[in-house]
Amino acid sequence: MKRFTHINATSAEHAVSCLQEYKDSSYVIAGGSDLLGCLKDNLWMQTPEAIVNLKTIEGLSYIKEEGSTLHIGALTTLTEVAESSIVKKLAPALAEAARRTASPLLRNMGTLGGNICQENRCWYYRYPSKLGGRIDCVRKGGTKCFAVIGEHRYHSIFGAVNKCIAVNPSDTAPALIALNATIKTTKRTIAIDEFFSAAHGAGSTILDRDEIVLEILVPVAAKSAVSAFKKIAFRKSIDFALVTCAIALEKDADKITAVRICLNGVYNNPMRSQEAEEFLLGKVLTEDIAKEAGEIALQNAKSLFQNIYKVQLAKTLVADTLLSL
């Protein structure tokens, strides 16, 4: 790992001023489970001059219900989210998504804010410099996505963004999208549907380099609302997902009156299945209806030959998640 300046931020304002001072040669660290690996592997085109520590900022770790909104601080650990009785009651899909992320050790370190801001896990993008030299793929300023012509069994089944077919790795992202959350930063408030953007650059969000997530806000749904999250991975712990699905819905007299469906692990960004949502409105949820919704959610898939298996996984997962509700 190359040398860098380590700064303990005393406030969000102090952290922002440090990022602005070092401009494009600085990163923030919270739990560090993603960032430290990037530093050790000399991942980026330019080694950062400064790392700004957010853990020294007080008041960014909390879970509380205020009025009709669940407020979660960005530095709240995934373990705290998974084990929170408030989250389990008001946003069970998010509690389950946090519980299924990584391993207990990593959940104790990793934060909710960090989980939604982590960089993609494509092995070409992440190839360590120490193993023969960094691979400068299109996401790092190169001219091609090596996964398209190489190993892509875990990659996008809905095409590319700016030639890149890496998938978004966050487990909590689809749950937050299904729950229609909002992200509060040092600059603005962002609707969750607009937060993720693989087209924005090497990162996975629309955040500016000097912008920090402060809080995640989840609206408290009606009493008739339910939500669920399911994940398929080779191992139930540690592994990143092959496919995840989160669904939140409301019913009146057994008919679905509102629904949000989000898949992840299938595209560069977490992917809303709006066609399936429209199909489900007004329907009584049965096994046949759930299966048809899964078919509709994947009708525009553009898989490659190594990852075509993920299409059926995703269809089944949509149906299973619906039926669990």
Q: Rg from C-alpha positions?
A: 19 Å
Q: Taking all residues together, what is the mean pLDDT?
A: 95
Write out the strand line-up for the largest beta sheet, numbering strands in chain order. Answer: 4-5-8-6-7
End-to-end gap: 47 Å
The 3D shape can be described as globular
Structural class: alpha+beta
Q: Assembly type of the shown chains?
A: single chain
Largest sheet: 5 strands, antiparallel
Task: Give the DSSP E fraction (strand runs of 2 or more residues).
Answer: 15-25%
Number of strands: 12
Order of helices and strands: EHEHEEEHHHHHHHEEHEEEEEHHH
Low-confidence stretches: none
Describe the structure.
This protein is of the alpha+beta class. α12 (287-297) packs antiparallel against α13. The chain is built from 13 helices and twelve strands. The termini are far apart. The strands form three sheets. It has a five-stranded antiparallel sheet. It has a four-stranded antiparallel sheet with strand order 9-10-11-12, with helices on both faces. α2 (35-40) links the parallel β2 (26-29) and β3. It is globular and about 60 Å long. The model has no long low-confidence stretch (mean pLDDT 95).
